[in-house]
Amino acid sequence: MSKLKQEAELVREAIRVGGLYMQKRGAGEFEATDSASEKTRALYRLLVKDQLIQPLAKDQENERNMKHKLALWIERQLPAGHPLKA
User: Fold this and answer.
1) For residue 82, is it within any domain?
2) Integer CA distances (angstroms), 43 to 31, 59, 82, 84, in order
3) What pTM, to 2 d.p., does this model score?
4) Residue 84 lies inside a defined structural domain of this protein
5) How many domains does the chain have?
6) Spatial separation of the C-alpha atoms in residues 28 and 4, rounded to whole Å
7) How far apart are CA 5 and CA 48, in angstroms?
8) DSSP state of 59
9) From CA 63, how far away is CA 26, in angstroms rounded?
10) Residue 86 and residue 84: Cα distance in Å, rounded?
11) SS3 state of residue 53
12) What is the residue range of 11's domain?
């Protein structure tokens, strides 16, 4: 997997938007004390469960790859011309 140009910023945006998605779906919400790692794992699993992203292979399921998947997901959701869109 090649790293995206602004992957860190895309992951932050994915966690922000994903948190709103979780609330609207009724799947819970992120707490202020949740680490970025916990948020990444929870959001990744929710999006896989809802079939919005394809799951990683079991041996590839690590935080770095999950963040990459979230970055790809949010990049597709952004409108054309958005500063984070490549």
Assistant:
1) no
2) 13, 19, 22, 20
3) 0.87
4) no
5) 1
6) 29
7) 24
8) G
9) 24
10) 6
11) coil
12) 7-77
